[in-house]
Design brief:
The chain has 9 helices and 7 strands. The chain starts with 14 loop residues before the first helix and ends with a strand. The chain is globular, with a radius of gyration of 17 Å. By secondary structure, it is α/β, with parallel strands linked by helices. Helix 7 packs antiparallel against helix 8. A 7-stranded mixed sheet has the order 3-2-1-4-5-7-6, with helices on both faces. Helices cover 43% and strands 21% of the residues.
């Protein structure tokens, strides 16, 4: 299991509350800053998630840690009847709702303020569930995964997009330099929250990835678990299903 990394080291709040506070603070700059930090490659990764989900022709999709709704909006291309974006940050959801309204997608996408570890949905409700850059922010990873398993239909598809660490030279060394030195600097220049992007890089480095995360997903009860490294291993797409 990963060590517990929190945004604000001197805060008395739990990780969940700290994460909500952090994303509320950076919500206004989050989209543009993400494009800069990832050089826009995150758009390509999300499209691969879309391709995996679309194969199952889902009717109901849940996007957890939806943030400003980028992946939820992309999921409308599956022709799903209903897409729900869930997040603990009201600030991020507010930005997302404006984007959704601008694209005239409010009838298809509902943005819901809620906790991924205690979701207000029935058992076996969704055909597909996605999480992009969100599982490492769960306070209790196993509990969050168990909740996802609960609300996913049998034979449903579960897809995670998350940062990971390259294992090959020179990509590993380049990644370590970028995340430790460049990423926090960009965050400080563009964000009102000086520690937010330091946390994001620190949590990415400490979070289990590849086969380590595969094993945690399997332990929770998922089947057909596969990890697909992206762009030299700086991110990984994980797919799984439910019996």
């Amino acid at each position: 299991m990963s060590q517990k990394i929190t945004p604000y080291k001197d805060s008395s709040l739990g990780k969940k509350e700290q994460v909500a506070q952090m994303f509320d603070t950076i919500s206004g700059n989050y989209d543009n800053l993400n494009r800069v930090i990832s050089f826009g490659i995150d758009i390509k990764w999300r499209k691969k998630v879309l391709q995996i989900v679309a194969q199952s022709k889902p009717k109901k999709i849940l996007d957890i840690a939806t943030g400003t709704g980028d992946l939820a909006i992309l999921m409308t291309q599956t022709q799903a009847d209903k897409i729900i974006g869930l997040d603990i940050s009201a600030g991020m959801l507010e930005v997302g709702e404006r984007k959704i309204a601008h694209k005239n997608l409010s009838k298809t996408i509902d943005m819901v303020l809620g906790d991924s570890e205690n979701m207000p949905f029935e058992d076996n409700y969704f055909d597909a569930i996605t999480v992009a850059f969100g599982v490492r922010n769960f306070e209790n990873l196993e509990k969050g995964l168990s909740e996802i398993l609960r609300v996913l239909k049998p034979n449903g598809v579960f897809v995670i997009l998350e940062t990971s660490v390259p294992v090959k030279t020179p990509y590993k060394q380049g990644y370590n330099f970028y995340t430790k030195n460049i990423l926090p600097l960009i965050g400080k220049l563009f964000s009102r929250d000086n520690v937010a992007y330091g946390y994001l890089s620190e949590s990415a480095a400490a979070f289990p990835y590849g086969e380590a995360l595969n094993n945690i997903i399997r332990k929770t009860g998922f089947i057909d678990v596969v990890a697909m490294p992206q762009t030299f291993g700086v991110a990984t797409i994980y797919s799984a299903s439910k019996k």
